[in-house]
Amino acid sequence: QWLSDRKKRALQKKDVDIRRRIELIQDFEMPTVSTKIKVSRDGQYIMAVGTYKPRVRCFDTYQLSQKFERCLDSEVVTFEILSDDYSKIVFLQCGRFVEFHSQHGHYYRTRIPKFGRDFSYHYPSCDLYFVGASSEVYRLNLEQGRFLNSLQTEASESNVCDINPVHFLFAMGTAEGKVECWDPRTRNRVGLLDCALSSVTADTEIEGLPSISALKFDGALNMAVGTSTGQVLLYDLRSSNPLIVKDHHYGLPIKSVQFQHQLDLIISADSRIIKMWNKDTGKIFTSMEPEHDINDVCLYPNSGMLMTANEAPKMSIYYIPVLGPAPKWCSFLDNLTEELEENPESTVYDDYKFVTRKDLENLGLAHLIGSSLLRAYMHGFFMDIRLYHKAKMMANPFAYEEYRREKIRQKIEETRAQRVQLKKLPKVNKELALKLIEEEGEEQQISRKRKQKNLPSLLKDDRFKVMFENPDFQVDEQSEEFRLLNPLVSKISEKRKRKLKILEELEAQGQEEEEEPEGKASDAESSESSDDEKGWVEEVRKQRKLLRQEEKLKRQERLKEDQQTLLKPQFFEIKEGEEFRSFKDSAKKQKLMKKTLEDRLKLEEKLGTLNVSDTTVGSKQATFKLKKSEQQRKQQEAEKQHRQERKTLRRSANHLKGRRGRGRLFH
User: Fold this and answer.
1) Where along the chain do the CATH 2.130.10.10 domains lie?
2) Which CATH class is domain 21-342?
3) Do 503 and 422 contact (CB within 8 A), yes or no?
4) pTM above 0.85, yes or no
5) CA-CA distance, 137 to 174, in Å (whole number)?
């Protein structure tokens, strides 16, 4: 934006995008805004209307230029090409005027009672159906040249209409969010669809009642409806429920709905985005967001070309090779797109460098913010590339040396990658890791031969990472379980220990090439490792014999230690209230605790402290009598003696009272 015209022209010679730019049709634009765009049925003429001043322009695709331009008295709401070429055109203007143009120019002009918003042409009867700010649908017969009786609808206003090209069913979308279908032959309504209710789903958020803003038939049975809240509904005329509901998620009215038959796509557009999606699944195929707001979309028949009328002077043309071939008048586009795919080039800005605020602080140029040397753009600034190089050299004069050292390091790393790499083993369970690496190599060779997928390695699995890091998970090879369950581990571990020793020596010396460990050939090693069942049994017996000998030696060592130790007398303190009987009581208790529960219950039953009986339900009932300690027994005897003494005292006291009473009576 800040460049001069001369500088722009110089940049255009370098800019790859500008050099690739193709102007298909010369002056394909409007003075200010384009509102509608259509293609004639023969595909030769493209017609567009716009402002300002209100005008229509016709472009000839065979000449790739504009054929004619006609100015109009008022803005065009919509228009229709009635003939195969540009010879018969009807314009619906915003001042309630309907204007007819022939090949030479303006032909006739008439007026409808209310403001019109859309119209359709019924070919069998030569009738024009106008809908607008009225509950009536006005019919104008072009053969008789007069208005016919209007169709009276239930809607207060109508926005769009369309006629099915197969069976000529007339459909109109109302402001209440309904679609009314009429039969032109009987002039009766044959169907009513409530699209406003069907467009509201659990995921949609709408404000107000959705009205119909776009309508399009496809074949005899399919119909697409666009709402003012940004939903597109696909209907089968035999059902009142939509087959699929697609939301644009912008809340803007749908401006246009088109059908693309080669890939079964629906092209729907609002003022912000054009979406292409599959009409069976609703899956998005692609989407386009032009720079300016969209007013209308036109799909060139049987091709991959798309044209849009925008809120800008330039009308856009898009070519998508996946949708179809290029039109015959610009067939060279197919060759160009193939060349662009074969030779991709990246865009490079040679004269300016984009820097962020942090980059400016590192270069010491933060004080230039706000000056003409920096141009603010997005989250940073554009600055002249020469100034950037000078500042970088001053801020870091040794940058070239660092760059040179980095390049040398990269070259060395590349040569190192071609050498034999050392196997880096973990600190814990090195032998197990070496075993897993060897097994992984063998499995990879087998999978290459059988063309199978490689299984993931335990060393790279995060779930088993701790096993090679935590010393608590170190495998104890001297344990009895390890030696019995792995009888062949001694032979295999010897080979791995030899390899491990060689690897450790190489790591200690800092060598980068791994030498082949001396030893037997791989065939001999594989023959040694694959022992038969007899050898395995012998190895197990040998291990068990060694374990018994080791256990015997351990017992002998314990006996020697017991004999050498001197026994010293030990003193025990007896708790208060307990009597010392003998050491046999404790021995009896220990022997009793070693017995099973069944034996103890039988013994208790014999002593009378336990009573086991059957109940009426069929279960067992056990009654226990708890044993009392010596202290509790003495306490109970003392309490019993105390109660007896109190009884004797009460008796003697009662006896004395009786004697005194009798003495007074006799006295």
Assistant:
1) 21-342
2) mainly beta
3) yes
4) no
5) 11
